[in-house]
Amino acid sequence: MSRAILRARGLVLAFGGVRAADGIDLDVLEGEVLAIIGPNGAGKTTFLNMVTGYLKPQAGSIQFADREITRLSPRRIVRLGIARSFQIPQLFREHSVLANIALALAAGGDFWSPHRPLLTTARETEAQALLQRFGLADLAQQRADALDEGARKLLDVAMAAALAPRLLLMDEPTSGVATAQKHAIMDRLIPALRQQGVTVVFVEHDMEVVARYADRVAVWSQGKILAEGPAGDVLADPTVRRDVIGLEGAAC
Amino acid sequence: MQLLLLAVLDGLAYAAQLFMVAVGLTLVFGVLKILNVAHGSLFAIGAYTASTLVGLIGTPDLSLIALALAALAVGAVAGPLIERGLLARIYDKEHVLQLLVTFALFMILEDVQKLLWGVKPLFEDAPVRLLGPIVVGDIYYTAYQLVLMPSVAAASLLILVWFLRRTLLGRTILAVTHDREAAQAIGIDARRVYLLAFTIGAGLAALGGALAAPTTSLVPGIGVQMIVLSFAVVATAGLGQIEGAAVTALLIGLGRSFAVYFAPELEVVVPYLLMVAVLLVRPEGLFGRSELRRI
After folding, report:
1. Is A118–B182 a contact, with Cβ atoms under 8 angstroms apart?
2. B interface mutation test: which of A78, A90, A157 has the most B CBs within 10 A?
3. What burial class does residue A3 get, using C-beta atoms within 10 Å of its C-beta: 0-12 exposed, 13-18 middle, 19+ buried?
4. CB B36 within 8 A of CB B44
5. Residues A225 and A44: beta-carbon distance below 8 Å
6. Where are the alpha helices (DSSP H) in chain B?
7. Is A155 on the interface with B (CB under 8 A)?
8. How far from B273 is each of A248, B23, B282, CA to CA, in Å?
9. In chain A, what are the domains?
10. Least CB-CB distance to A107: which of B174, B179, B186?
11. Could you tell me the residue ranges of all domains in chain B?
12. Is A239 in the B-facing interface, judged by CB distances under 8 Å?
């Protein structure tokens, strides 16, 4: 059995009267693809924000690879090996696709040599290989703000993958794209990330996507985890189908 | 005809001085998103320090080196001190508060100047005398103002553009400028980028002051005039536009100089008339782009 690479215990975070996290306990196992599902406002993104240091829980703790990370800054957490992508892709709009990847590749290194170029031969080769894996090689010279939404999503994840993380959190990697394009995006992302040996957690609303790509599923509801387990079992659970997925009839 | 040539030469020299200060202001705004009113004080302190150092060294041959050293010292000391000690605490605050804080700093630094250098005019023109005059047409002009200052301004522009567009560190600064959150998400230390950008901006203001020092009597308040004019340059170009600041510095420098010779009563208002005319047509400035509002 895989060991837990991420361990969240008793996470609590309230915004005024709304408890976005109300005692969250979750283990993410090394090498798995875990989907987080639940209605809007259930606290899914809040959880990602707490793990990546953008929000600090009012109670509870988060351990990554047996190291306490609850109070660390987003930058420190990235450097420890947790990367993320965003629901609205966070790209450097005026840079080319290649330069976006090169910046991510260089981010962990030494920035402080004022004459050193961004695109060294080695970095460009590495960036091109990464773009190839994520199906973006043909767009390398395009500016990020000229990409369609699907390519922007792919680039956002590719930049996170360029950081060579052990754990990658993706916030709705297929939101805002046509249904037909969703599987194409995930067909690119998941094999590329598995090939890299990255543990993946992704927030998703499309149950077809979840069923097809997730090993395990955790169901969020009002700041709590309602159910958690193998994808097939959780998605067949009558309570989950009725209260979260919104399908009439409790049976599968 | 001679008057016309004189106006062009004056405008060129003044534009170079204006650009040195404005480019620092626009760089700081572009990266930190703070309009630093105290930027004018850094210009003034650079000027006073340069004059003092030139006087202390006493050897005209070393006076140009003294100017550069003064600018370097003011930028390297005041930049980190202000950024770490003050601005780093207000990045997440309202723009109005940021403006008030830098205005308060400006007022304090104005008094610091009076404390250190008094209120008597200070004039040290050894660097101008060192380079001597040059003749353009029938006009004798100082090589310092007509060759050195525009050359330093042009070199500053080229180096800055090369640095920002071609080097890893420069691209990192631009990345933080475009999207601080995205930069943090890939592990870039935005705080160090802010410190670096502010120090470069402070150094450019001080260099502008050091270069201006041998051409004018230094009196309390020189920073005020410079920050207001620099703001006109930066706003006309579009906030954060470096090459644009060079063009508008030239435009405003020439406009002011032509007013001096052909409509002296308009000298003071010409830069602002130009700014208002541009902003009425293009509120984002000549080279600025309107930002999409994020929701």
Report:
1. no
2. A90
3. exposed
4. no
5. no
6. 2-32, 39-57, 63-85, 95-117, 126-131, 143, 149-166, 168-178, 180-185, 190-212, 222-237, 242-262, 270-281
7. no
8. 68, 21, 14
9. 4-245 (3.40.50.300)
10. B186
11. 24-220
12. no
Provide the residue-wise pLDDT of chain B in tens; the chain has 295 residues.
788 999 999 999 999 999 999 999 999 998 988 999 999 999 999 999 999 999 999 888 999 999 999 999 999 999 999 999 999 999 888 999 999 999 999 999 999 999 999 999 999 999 999 999 999 888 899 999 999 999 999 999 999 999 998 888 998 898 888 888 788 888 888 888 999 999 999 999 999 999 999 999 999 999 998 999 999 999 999 988 899 999 999 999 999 999 999 999 998 899 999 999 999 999 888 888 765 443 3
Hey, are the CB atoms on A94 and B174 less than 8 Å from each other?
A: yes
- Say how many C-beta atoms besides its own lie within 10 A of residue A119's C-beta: 16
Question: How close, in Å, is residue B251 to chain A by CA atoms?
Answer: 27
Nearest CA in chain A to B291: A93
- Nearest CA to A43 among A246, A183, A226? A226
Other C-beta atoms closer than 10 Å to the C-beta of B268 total 12
Residue B214 near residue B144, CB atoms below 8 Å: yes
* Chain A residues lying within 8 Å of B168, measured CB to CB: 106, 111, 113, 116-118
Residue type (1 letter), A61: S
Question: Hey, are the CB atoms on A103 and B186 less than 8 Å from each other?
Answer: yes
Phi, psi of A171 (to 5 degrees): -95, 105
DSSP string, A28-45: EETT-EEEEE--TTSSHH
How many inter-chain contacts (A to B, CB under 8 Å) are there? 79
Contacts of B175 in chain A (CB under 8 A): 92, 95, 103
Distance CA B11, CA B8 (A): 5
Residue A80 touches partner B, C-beta closer than 8 Å: no
Among chain A residues, CA nearest to B167: A117
